[in-house]
């Protein structure tokens, strides 16, 4: 629990540029923070933990990703290499946890592996969408749910998952799956799979089975634990790390979309929400590539011009970034309004589309 809360607060702490600038003061603490600092006076962009001197506030511009800073015309810093990736390292760590979730993954154990726990936790969250602790707990409980489905006893599943107390196990299990350990019966033939995708606007994460896509989000914005819990409750199926035909399909479509070649996603979708949300999403999908609508126009299209706020809220909750194109909804006065994936990204997506009309 602790890790999740800490990570979430961390994200909220960096909502505004002033908060981001403030976070740069503590250089060691800034290593691995999830944004890019560009410097107007030098035209260079850096990781937050760059050893170079902290620029004046008025010279700082902040971006969600290195790709966006690059696109805006800044050059990468030669000291902190903001384009270089930690991805391979994180991927192998993820595999290691997956193979051995009950091992000791405490800060102390990570330090003994030569890793810096605080930095690692931030990077892990930014690249996967999961807090490190949340990921480990999710993997442990998922494996417990699978062995229970296969007929394992609750006490054995509890011990295998690394829980000393039955009540602690029951509580964590109930929180993850919405049901008691003794009752779980996964549809094992139909797992959902989590996969990651690189895009020029940052890494994305998808959840798919062999026939449809259930979720697609930017990793640095998504609350993965909430997403997997939601899907566990709705579908009662194992959720694993892996790729399906649909993961490959969406990856291919993303590549073509970011090249400006694809105007209409065709990956089959499963959208889960209230009737009103589904109506809103259907209207969103009807906004053509490269065009925008206001929240008020969208509310009108849904048949209730007073429902602007409800429409905006459904808009943000669709769980399928880019495909249900909520980035095409802007404020009435023509300004960008909000975006779950970050306003800089929204602006970049809209330029990508208008440039390829
Ligand atoms: Zn630098």
Helices and strands in order, then pairings?
Layout: H1 2-13, H2 17-23, H3 27-30, E1 36-39, E2 44-46, E3 60-63, H4 66-71, E4 75-76, H5 87-99, H6 107-112, H7 117-128, H8 132-149, H9 154-160, H10 166-177, E5 192-197, E6 204-208, E7 213-218, H11 224-235, E8 239-241, H12 245-258, H13 275-285, E9 293-294, H14 295-302, H15 308-316, E10 329-330, H16 343-355
Parallel strand pairs: 2-4, 5-8, 9-10
Antiparallel strand pairs: 1-2, 1-3, 5-6, 6-7
Helix pairs in contact: 8-9, 13-14, 14-15
Bound molecules: zinc ion.
CATH architecture of the largest domain: Orthogonal Bundle
Radius of gyration: 21 Å
Count of domains: 4
Tertiary shape? globular
Unreliable spans are 1-12
Structural class: alpha/beta
Strand order of the largest sheet: 3-1-2-4
**How would you sum up the major sheet?**
4 strands, mixed
Can you say what the CATH homologous superfamily of the largest domain is? Homeodomain-like
Question: Which fold name corresponds to the CATH topology of the largest domain?
Answer: Arc Repressor Mutant, subunit A
Task: Give the termini distance in whole angstroms.
Answer: 47 Å
| Share of helix, binned | 40-55%
Multimeric organization: single chain
Number of helical segments with 4 or more residues: 16
Query: How much beta, percentage-wise?
Result: 5-15%
Written as H for each helix and E for each strand, in order along the chain, the element string is: HHHEEEHEHHHHHHEEEHEHHEHHEH
The average pLDDT value, as a whole number, equals 87
Number of strands: 10
The CATH class of the largest domain is Mainly Alpha
The unique ligands bound to this protein are:
zinc ion
Enzyme class: transferase
EC number: 2.1.1.63
Keywords: Activator, DNA damage, DNA repair, Membrane, Metal-binding, Methyltransferase, Transferase, Transmembrane, Transmembrane helix, Zinc
Active site: 46 (nucleophile), 326 (nucleophile)
